[in-house]
Design a protein that fits this description.
Order of helices and strands: HEEHEEEEHEHE
Number of strands: 8
Strand content: 25-35%
Structural class: alpha+beta
Largest sheet: 5 strands, mixed
Oligomer: single chain
Radius of gyration: 15 Å
């Protein structure tokens, strides 16, 4: 029997540049709490677009996210809500990311609704508006520059 090796997530210095955005996707059949993770463009001397892409791939791999063109895999319990604050466990033994979320997102997650985690490999300016973010997400989807998975609050 082989034991799967879990890739190590990028270090805390890189993860500090990751931004999280939340939203609700609602259809007649279901409601999903979306959690989008992206990194800011290069801001430090050692960062490049390619180094950010590679580190975001590591970030996604550490959470066992799957390819965008398949059904999003179940990735275990990655989101915990404690004292009304959601946290993302991205695979680091010491650190978690605080998820900025509206009450509507928290309600879906806290009531057992699915949480879809989407990690984009291409950098996005943190000040991007909703339209720019949606356009960037579509571009990443079309070019396979993202991974996704489904989790539930535990």
């Amino acid at each position: 029997m082989t034991i799967p090796i879990t890739p190590a997530p990028p270090g805390a210095g890189f993860v500090a540049g990751i931004r999280l955005a939340t939203g609700i996707h609602q259809t007649d059949a279901f409601t999903v709490a979306n959690l989008l993770a992206f990194h800011a463009p290069p801001r430090l001397a050692h960062e490049t677009d390619e180094s950010i892409r590679e580190s975001m791939r590591s970030f996604a791999a550490a959470m066992h996210l799957g390819p965008h063109d398949n059904e999003p895999p179940h990735i275990g319990h990655r989101v915990r809500i404690r004292r009304g604050m959601p946290w993302l466990n991205y695979g680091d033994d010491e650190y978690r990311l605080r998820v900025p979320a509206a009450r509507s997102w928290l309600d879906v997650a806290a009531n057992g609704g699915p949480i879809r985690v989407l990690v984009l490999f291409e950098p996005l300016t943190p000040g991007a508006n909703q339209h720019q973010t949606a356009e960037h997400l579509r571009d990443c989807y079309q070019h396979g520059a993202m991974r996704w998975g489904t989790t539930y609050h535990a």
